[in-house]
Amino acid sequence: MVTAAPWWPGASKTYALGSFKARGGLQGGDGGRIETSGYWLGVDSIQVDAGASKGKAGLWLLDPPDIYISDQANSVLPTYGVVANPGVISTALMTSNVTLRTSGVLYEPATPLLTGILAFSEAPPSNFSPYTGASAPVFFSPGGVGSGSIFVNAPIDSGSSSRLTLHAEGVRASGSFTAMAGVIAVRQPISLAGDLILLAGEPAYELPAAVPGQINLVAQIGLGGKLTLFADKVFSSTAGSIKSSGLFVEISENSTLDGKISGTGGVTLKGTSTTSLVLANVANDFTGSLVLLGAQSISDNRTIPGSTGPGLN
Known about the structure:
mainly beta, 13-stranded parallel beta sheet, 11-stranded parallel beta sheet, 3% helix
C-alpha cells in the first residue's frame, strides 16, 4: 500500500506529484492500494498505477472533504477538498480501479447553526429537496469545512474496464451539529467501458433528522458495465440518460428517473416495503426484467415483455 495522507483542518496542503505504483508481480498477484488524502489536495501532476499483468487491478483512493471533478487548475481550489482533473482519473482507470470518497469530516461549528439553509461550498442541484416541517434539520455555513459531497463538473471518459466509484459520505454529527449526508451531482457526461458505482451517504451514522443522501443526474451516463446507485433518494432530469449493462438502485425514499434508460440487464430495485421507483421516460428501451428486492414497486412508462412481480408495470 502506498499512502500520502497528511491531514490537519485549515492548515495542510497536500500535493501528490510524480509516479505512484503498487503493481502486482510479473509472475502473478493482484495490484495494491494507493491512497492520497488531505484537507487540501492537489493531484493534477500525479501518475497512478495499481495494475496487475496476471491478476486483478488494485485501487487508487482519494478521500478529501469535498471533490470537484473539473478541468480547472488547482489554483482555483477552495480552502478544502480536491479539484480532480478528469484526464488524471481517465489515465488512472487504464490500469487501476479508482474510488473518490469524501471523508465525512467530524466538525463542531464555531458559527451559529442556520435553519433550513443548505450551505454547500457551491450551490446544490436545483431539484435538491431537503426535509421540511417540524423535523427539518439545521445546516451550517461551512466556513472552510467541506459538505462531504461530489460534483462532476467535467466529462469523464475511459475505455478501460476498470471500476469507478464515487462515494459522497457527507458530514457526521458532532456535538450540537446535525449530521448531513452527502450529495453526488453529475453535471457532465460519464462514459466508461467498466462499472460505475455512485453512493451518497453512509447508513452507519446517518440520523433520522439528517438530510438524505441524494444522487442527482443532469448529464448522460454511458457504460459498458453495470451502474449502481445507492442513496436515500435519486433524481435524473431528461438530460440524465443512462445506458448500462444492468441498473441496480438501492433507496429508502420514493424516487423518479426522468432520463431515458437503455442497455441490457434490466433494472433491480432494493428498498423497503414502501419504497417505489418511477422510470418516467416513455422512450425507455432497455432490455431485461424488473426485479424487486424487498421494495414495493417499479413503475415503467412502457411495458417490458416478460416482466412479472408485485408492483411491476
